[in-house]
Design brief:
Structural class: alpha+beta
Strand order of the largest sheet: 2-1-3
Helix content: 10-25%
Shape: elongated
Number of strands: 3
Radius of gyration: 14 Å
Order of helices and strands: EHHEE
């Protein structure tokens, strides 16, 4: 991948849930291994505020458990 690691990123964690949702702190802390994996993959140099300029969480309820998922989006920012 050209241009990696990215010098600055924004991270969005979105949960589609069915039944009982994760609380905000659980969703945030549960995404930590994936952010660490982005560092291991060479996408980020670290997860400090100097690199991770924004970190957002969002939720959406779905009717069926098969539609439940968590997506972590990492975008390069200038």
């Amino acid at each position: 991948m050209v241009g990696l690691p990215w010098p600055a990123v924004g991270i969005v964690v979105k949960q589609w849930w069915c039944g009982k949702p994760h609380d905000a702190s659980g969703l945030a802390s549960g995404s930590a291994p994936w952010v660490d994996a982005a560092m291991d993959a060479g996408i980020l140099t670290d997860d400090s505020p100097l690199v991770v300029r924004s970190f957002a969480l969002s939720w959406e309820q779905v009717k069926h458990k098969a539609d439940a998922q968590v997506v972590i989006e990492i975008r390069r920012v200038e």
